[in-house]
């Protein structure tokens, strides 16, 4: 992935926390709901936490050292009140958790779905090198990080902050001198925290990068199993994997060491505070400025203060990575879709014969040079157009522009006189369908795959569709017929069979314009000729654009467009071009030589 | 010594302890260290409570009552608390670091084993398992198996802590200790109930996360189809299902947590109140003093949080067992190919024999049957046959990606199964029908890490007719091609794959329809290059088996094998087959026949027009 692309996807990655929050709220409005009550509940549960220190102080000062010795009934009453307080706190805590969970999970689900939908509109998915795995992780693990943080950390974090604040207030209420001692003891921790945090997030940044490297190393023998096996590069592959696993292990362990250190510094600070409070407390007590109960209650307050500090330091790291994950997802949503569905505002076109025009179309892939230059073409209704040209001359690119998988860098593609950018996707995709160069099938049954474009089609219609392309024999030869599984990416079928299935799928979708990009390149000539003849019959009433290296298609077409180096250099019917002495003549000569060689 | 066995049956907890035993067996040293550190931490936590009680009675109360204190007493206080804090910190660092080292080492060990297994298991096995699942076996499953290691030392430290605390409490006062003996087990039981209740919810959420990921993966992988058929909205609906289910599952987990957390949190607090109440009684009856009460109450506060570590371990066990089972499925899979010792020593073109070979992917359907043929060294043979005839399957047998069910494939007279590992790849190169490129540079994709000079690479590219476009790329051989080579056009990908085979100068070259995506002119040049490349001065250096439909490719061949339905129907020269085998003739002449038919139709149309005019 190039730097510029990275920045395109990670749009807003450097936004501050507040900006993230704002953007996040816009995407998931659920997150902003019901904060009034939730806030009151959260305050209640935080307040409940100081019940115990107060109880200790009261017991020691009033219960144990009362004027008439230990005062049982006072302590009993107080404990009862405090117990009620603890139970009330528990109730508030339950309600807070549930309310927060419902809001945040609903918000995250909304965000996940929006991101998923948006990814399908991103050009990177179909035309660039951005790893699909990275896109998948945007709607999976990145969102999960946020969700898990909210489950385990986020809630604790908020409560911890509240508890710290409250403990501080109460400490100052009991004794400002001791409170100062506590804060003083924690200053070294707070001072080093910034540094440690930076070290931690740097360490976890490296860990994340190493995870990515490890995953891509591990995926080699899985996705490329056949190449790895047939070229016997197991050793090299294993070495790469071992190195990446080891790298990850080292960086993860290092990050863990830094976390452990941070956590222990919290503990040290607490120990220091204990010692400090006791020392100063004893000196104050000697001066009669503090009671024994106050001093002991203070020890409980110190732990009430230091526990959340320690927890917060740890959670802060998680918070950082959760925020980063959140920003990444929001970044995807904020990335402008190059190919935008005009949706409701879009033109809805009537079905029927279609005219396509290319007006001064230029196209360049992100960061690349122009691969199409000033392409002009008009494809009339009912015409069968063949597109030929050398490899890499821009034929597939032309087809993708025609079907609006991409938009031109400049110029316009018009369908029935309307700029393709103004036609609603629903209408456009209904009218224009392309069969891409690699016939991708989903890991499902044959029927599910063929039905993909029009789910309402019945099994009987599917059988008819196979029949109309002359594929009945093949269908019948499959042990489970339409229910046969096709395997991952369709790999349980032969390459030619895969293409035939993709062709049936497009035919079922019944478009006005069918674009075939080398859709039968792996099919044997006999079958190809038969299928093409059948398609021709089926295409009566349709317009078709066929890209093929086998020029038999061009011979049969009404018109041929010849591409060379991103330009249309010749056009016209086969009969005219074949004798013209240009690019087409050369291509055709090689074709004839090939076809009739021997 | 073998890895200890994890019981196959029994409760999740029992099996989970089995997994923990494996972990300890794998990393005994670091485990012992982290447990020691954790016990230090546990001991020092209890010591903190004891120290407060002790100093209340011996330093603080006397000072408050007498109104004076000594420097010595103050120094004792400070060093007592600081000392405990320092030892405690050492314990914490040791425990966490130990747990981390152990967890990450175990992860690494098991990832190594899993990936070794991937490289060892046959291609058939790979076909039976989805890419997504294999990736998650090596990553997420290994991770979740060993998550439990993170809290393990702490949990063991907590057990020590509880023992120390019980002793300390009994030393302080029996009645107060009894309160403790009531509260601690209660906290523990609440934890167990909580984990039991949470476990199925958490497992469900985990499963749904996998579902969400699978839908996303598949949908993005097939994005082009989704887009061309305008199914984005439908796909989003499909994604909404598991996403909303995951949302509800997460909310359920949170509700459970929200219910139990305050209980587990509140119990020690109520315990403190009970201690105060009982304590006042004990102090009144003279059985205990204020220090004892403070100590026990403080212990409750200190232990309230760490005691959860026991719950964490118990809570992680089910996940760990699930992960373990999934990883074991890979590790115990059998069927790795057996290799012999034989070597291929010849440097001349290879001789290929296929004798009585039968093969099928599914038990009920043979894809190849009764395959019998021999290719003499240096010959070029075209394999021709209709779609689905079994041609690609044949190539996987010739390169021993799979073994035949019956019969044998031999190179230079040696059964492939007798060859030493990696030996075959030194002699045979396959260019598969679908060009697969790694997410690597062009050079990396051609050399595959082998030791080839740039000159060799360029020469191979030249024969494959790929030198031109590679030179035109700004970074030349160092250009990254993207996942599966997405930045290249179809024909460009094929030529890189071809160069990959050619650079190795194989003695047997197998081309599976390897020029289907290039235009006729380029194909003609590739064929011409091949023709001169496979013939060195001494004659043919390479035996070539080429799967093809076009006559130009067939014309390269000395002989033709015509197959259909997994059988060889004819073997001879092109001319022989053309006269002897009508099916062959129909196939290779299809284009010409079609062109003729069109011509006739056109003439008929013209005649018809002429007639009407
Ligand atoms: N996603 C992409 N990013 C960058 N460059 C690309 C991308 N896809 C194609 N190209 C480049 O654009 C040019 C035209 O590619 P295109 O796929 O349109 O060729 P083509 O005529 O279809 O070739 P073929 O016959 O081999 O399929 C090629 O040079 C190719 O390398
Ligand atoms: N992994 C698989 N599992 C089950 N069946 C398979 C698998 N791979 C191929 N087949 C079936 O085996 C038969 C032969 O397939 P193969 O790929 O060898 O054909 P082919 O001759 O190469 O065809 P093509 O010309 O289309 O490439 C086909 O009917 C196919 O459906
Ligand atoms: Mg193309
Ligand atoms: Mg094949």
TrEMBL record, chain A:
It is a multi-pass membrane protein. Keywords: ATP-binding, Cell inner membrane, Cell membrane, Membrane, Nucleotide-binding, Transmembrane, Transmembrane helix, Transport. Its main location: membrane. CDD domains: ABC_6TM_exporters. The keyword Cell inner membrane applies. SMART domains: AAA (SM00382). GO terms for cellular component: plasma membrane. It comes from the Bacteria. Residues 37-321 form the ABC transmembrane type-1 domain. The chain crosses the membrane at residues 35-55, 75-102, 149-172, 178-196, 258-284. PROSITE patterns: ABC_TM1F (PS50929), ABC_TRANSPORTER_2 (PS50893). GO terms for molecular function: ABC-type transporter activity; ATP binding; ATP hydrolysis activity; ATPase-coupled lipid transmembrane transporter activity. Pfam families: ABC_membrane, ABC_tran. It is found in: Cell membrane. Residues 356-590 form the ABC transporter domain. PANTHER family: ATP-BINDING CASSETTE SUB-FAMILY B, ATP-BINDING CASSETTE SUB-FAMILY B MEMBER 6. This is ABC-type multidrug transport system fused ATPase/permease subunit. The lineage of its organism: Bacteria, Bacillati, Actinomycetota, Actinomycetes, Propionibacteriales.
From TrEMBL, chain B:
The keyword Cell membrane applies. Residues 32-319 form the ABC transmembrane type-1 domain. One of its GO terms (molecular function) is ATP binding. It is found in: Cell membrane. It is a multi-pass membrane protein. The keyword Cell inner membrane does not apply. It holds the Pfam family ABC_tran. GO terms for cellular component: plasma membrane. Keywords: ATP-binding, Cell membrane, Membrane, Nucleotide-binding, Transmembrane, Transmembrane helix, Transport. It comes from the Bacteria. Residues 352-590 form the ABC transporter domain. The chain crosses the membrane at residues 30-52, 72-93, 146-168, 174-194. Belongs to the ABC transporter superfamily. Lipid exporter (TC 3.A.1.106) family. This is ABC-type multidrug transport system fused ATPase/permease subunit.
